[in-house]
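[Q] Does anyone have a clean structure-token version of this?
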Amino acid sequence: MKQNSMQYLLEKFREGTLNEEERAELERLTHKDEVFAAAGRKVRGIIWRRVSLAVAAMMVVGAGTLTMLPREQEPLMAEAIEIPVPTVETQPAAPPAIETVAPQQTTAKTQRAASLQKRPKARLAIQEETEPVVVCNNQCEADSVISDIRKFLSV
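[A] Here you go.
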């Protein structure tokens, strides 16, 4: 009977001739309230899962972004390290032959040339300068400046 009455009520529902008492009977037979309550629970569960997944994803993205940001660190400072410089010395070349000049023709120019030729020129040595270099301003005498220039050029 229940099946027949349900079919009869559904037929009337399709036609649109269902009255209020028949509608209440159809809802009772089809368990409409229970079905809608169960569907509502499923919808709320789906919405809850989606929202919680979205929040978790945002937290993961935020944590990843924070780990990628540069952190404030102490500035890197250069450190001076002394590296020993090897000294390279070669054998002095044989001094060139000195020309003999007659004593009456010896001048300051030829004496200077002779003193320069006596020095070994082929000696390569890396040495630190021990004598400080003094730069003169307008208070120095011209002769001392010229002698300093000559010393510099003779080396």
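[Q] Thanks! Anything notable?
[A] The helical segments are 2-15, 20-30, 32-68, 108-118, 142-154.
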